[in-house]
Design goal:
Chain B: Residues 391-410 are annotated as: Disordered. Chain B: This is Urea ABC transporter permease subunit UrtC. Chain B: The chain crosses the membrane at residues 71-90, 140-163, 170-188, 220-240, 267-287, 293-312, 319-336, 356-383. Chain B: Keywords: Cell membrane, Membrane, Transmembrane, Transmembrane helix. The complex is a heterodimer of chains A (657) and B (410). Chain A has 657 residues and is of the alpha+beta class. Chain A has helices at residues 2-20, 34-41, 43-48, 55-62, 68-77, 127-141, 147-159, 166-173, 179-196, 200-210, 216-226, 256-262, 271-280, 298-311, 320-329, 341-391, 398-415, 419-444, 453-475, 502-524, 526-536, 538-543, 548-573, 580-595, 600-620, 625-642, and strands spanning 81-84, 90-97, 100-104, 111-116, 120-122, 228-233, 243-247, 286-287, 290-291, 331-336, 491-493, 499-501. Chain A contains 26 helices and twelve strands. Chain A is extended, with a radius of gyration of 38 Å. The model of chain A is unreliable at 15-28 (pLDDT under 50). Chain B has 410 residues and is mainly α. In chain B, the strands form two sheets. In chain B, strands 1-2 form a two-stranded antiparallel ribbon. In chain B, strands 3-4 form a two-stranded antiparallel sheet. The longest helix of chain B has 30 residues, at 73-102. The radius of gyration of chain B is 23 Å and the shape is globular. Classes of the chains: A alpha+beta (657), B mainly alpha (410). At the A-B interface, helix 13, helix 19, helix 24 and helix 26 of A face helix 5, helix 6, helix 7, helix 12 and helix 14 of B.
Chain lengths: 657, 410
Amino acid sequence: MKRALIIALATLCLGTQLLAQDTADPAPDTDLGPMQQVLQENAELIVESSRRTIGPAIDAVANSELEAASFVLETWAAREMYQRTSDGLFFAAEETGDDIFTLTDFDSGDVVGESPDDDLEQIKPNSGIRGLIGTALVSFQLNDPDPEKREDAISSLERRANADLLAPLRASIEPETDPALRARKIRTERLLTIAYDPDEAARIAAIEEMSGDLGVDVRATLNPLVATTIRAYPDGVPDDVNVAYTLRPGSDELPRMDAYAMTDGPAIVSPDDIRAALQANIDGGSVGGIPVAQLSDPARREAAYAALAEAGTVPPRPTEADIDAALDATTFAAIYAEPSAAVTAAAEDALSAIDTNVGFNQMLDLGLDALSLASIYFLAAIGLAITFGVMGVINMAHGEFIMMGAYTGYVVQQVIPNHTTSIIVAIPLAFAVTFAAGVALERLVIRWLYNRPLETLLATFGISIALQQLAKNIFGTQARPLTSPDWLGGAVVLNDVVSISTVRIAIFVLALIFLGVFLFIMKRTRLGLETRAVTQNPGMAGAMGINPGRVNMLTFGLGSGIAGIAGVAIGLYAQVTSEIGQAYIVQSFMTVVVGGVGNIWGTLLGAGLIGTLHKGIEWFNPSNTLAAQTYMIIFIIIFIQFRPRGIIALKGRAAGD
Amino acid sequence: MQRSFLMKNPSIMVFLAVLALFTIVVTIGSEAFGAGFVSTSFVKTLGKTLCLALVAVAMDLVWGYAGILSLGHFAFFGLGGYMIGMWLMYERTKEIVAASMAEAPIPPTPQEIVDGIGTQIFGVVGSAEFPVIWAFADSLFLQLVLVVAVPGLLALIFGWLAFRSRVTGVYLSILTQAMTLALSLYLFQNDSGLRGNNGLSGLQNLPGLDDISQDFVSMWFFWGSALALALGYVFAAWIVSGKFGSVLRGIRDNEARVRFLGYSVEGYKLFLFTVTAMIAGVAGALYYPQAGIINPAEIAPIASIYLAVWVAIGGRGRLYGAVIGAVFVSLVSTFFTGGQAPDIDLGFYRIQWVDWWTILLGLSFVLVTLFAPQGMGGLFDLITGRRHPERHGADLGPDKGSLQEEEAER
């Protein structure tokens, strides 16, 4: 009420001023700046502040070609525009004192005075209006001297654009000096051309230009162009619609009943509806002359319904023949929303080119994923391969060594808050801890069981459940975070399809390092020589002066130590729980079994095969990782049929049996 | 005239007598038929323990006698449970659905009843359709056949693949473990048709017997379990007592030598593997109606490893050892993990058995493996005076049973 009064007053003032000037010149009071005039002309709309009606007001400001326009729009959108109640003028106001606002004139940009709170009415645009103002602002911001504002403008264009912005965007490309922004502007211009340019040839040219581009934005622009809806045409498809293809009812895309529902025949009555209709029309123990007790038979129900339909109490059902006739008489077609056939054809071509390209890149992405998974399996399995290959011992507690490594990393992080330092400390420490645990396990348990491999399996299983429960007792059952340092936090993005997280690259590098270290130890050191000798023939090695017990101990320690480091690596991207080792143990076994024991290259190949297989199966059925694991294991069981000793099997005497 | 089977194996008679005595004592003590000092829930625990003993006997057959450390027998056990669970759940749900639909003014069509059952059973996994594998769920007889047929068929296919390619020893263990993992992961999926990780539930209610209290039902299952254990035990003893058993032990001790003697090692192994899988299926079919619920977690590889642990603690290569191991370890586990064991206050730390029992079990298992490869069953050797001849080194256990440690190293 108050507001209306103000407006009325303001209009009156203007009116009187106008009346006062009896010259022919209709220009309003020259005291007012040009922008203030524009605002006053639209004062009513501005104050009303309704999304439906505000359009002309924003346009008036934006198209005023005044320098102050962007200032007004920004102030307006920021809710800093106020109307002075006493004379209806608009100002940018800022609260500088207790209920005192400093007013800035839009035209001059000067501070024109102060005003108490009471005399000012804030203009409060809602989010819808702010969106409109933002769009209007874009054309100003595109040429703003501040690169940040230009970037904001482009971002806003990429999110929300309309046909009107195409022209200002095009105009702003030429003066753009920043090469990155210029490239973005050109790209956005192409996309807007596809969507909004009235010239068909220009659109097609733009579509062809963007064909094969991997950006999600391109697909987001093209997909609406090729979106279709299925329509039913009783009299054939008219010429003025853009038909994608015609359909026959009864296909997967258009089931028969759905197709029938689109025609204007009598509605189909579902069995549920029949039951409801019968239920509603029970008349003295029978429906349509059929006793209720007989209605457990579907045929009797239909007969009862037919009787009701004949009596007119329920709507009739179409017979199968009716449905067929109705379907035959109707043409079903998928119709593009986009009317121009040339544009849709070009868009379809572009999308199929994009799909090919995306598919290719997805294969690349999948390859990278498989590689990173393979390196994880390799890290987890390499220690197992050493102990299994050299000593013929299955260490079921291997997974728990991985867990110990991960928890070591967690504990170190509690002590050393700097993530980079803590990881650098944690890796050797995890190695030390699990090396010691491995040596202890070998000395205390496994040493006594070298002739009983199956019982080693069970004894180490006992150790495994004991260690798991111990970890649960110490650290609790909830997952503990092992935070990676910031420089490992990101991802390397090649394009919108291919990206790989830095942690996974780091794990890949770690796996490579361990491959190198392991090869060096085995081929270039005394320990490696002795280990190989013991692998081939423990008795003969002993005769040559090698102490097999010591070699076994050190080998087992080495294998366990690597498991500890794998634990830190795995902990970086998975949650650390007492069951973390269990998640990897079976895959590690598989890796070793598939790869073949006693050969590092076998383990590498095994890890590669299992990683690729896992990701490959996941790709066929991405929604279901459980199924992927199931099929992978089945595949491995079948694989073992053909190479029972793994990909690389030891030959000759070294093979054991 | 040869001595009869039972005369040659007096331990069978002893075992059957002990089992019979046990059954009678429990019956007398039950709430249904006697004094009531054995609670119904404890009767169920005992009945379940008997089923575990049966699957342990099957495990002992493959591991203790044929040297195949299978880590898949609990999967067969679970499959048997699933098969009977399907019938129990289907019929039970049918009763409920039919009762609720009977109140409607119009009698339901058969299709509506089936749809109603489907919605009831598969609602939790967002489906109402009956998967193909439920095709026989309305027939008790067919499902009972499936109880032995499904685990048997799986074991037959898997065993054929594995034994044919001469996968032995540790490799075979890992492969069976992989099979178990694959099966449990498959069942964990919602679209596996067996309700994903919800599993089958409400199995303790027998269809059509609503008015009979669980006191009686639990006793029936207890008797059934005892009978199954007795039959299974005698069957297993019969298998291992004759020439067949000798070949099995020969395979365990030196597979190549038996093969060179002209025996079809793979055939023997495959037969035993399949038969024990069927026994495991029967045990599971008796176990899960007493447990009331089955879900894929029951099938996880760790359960099969625990089964091996029971048999090892009880003593491999002797059937009563397997029974003792399963009964002892599972009952003691129930005691400790059920919170009945008193906490031990060390002053600075309070040992709660729920937390520490697994550690104790794991370590004692290591100790048994190291110091008592014969398991608890070995204690009976001391009583019966059946001493081994003094040979060199420690006993190697069943996988290289004919040799002692120092002989093997030569």
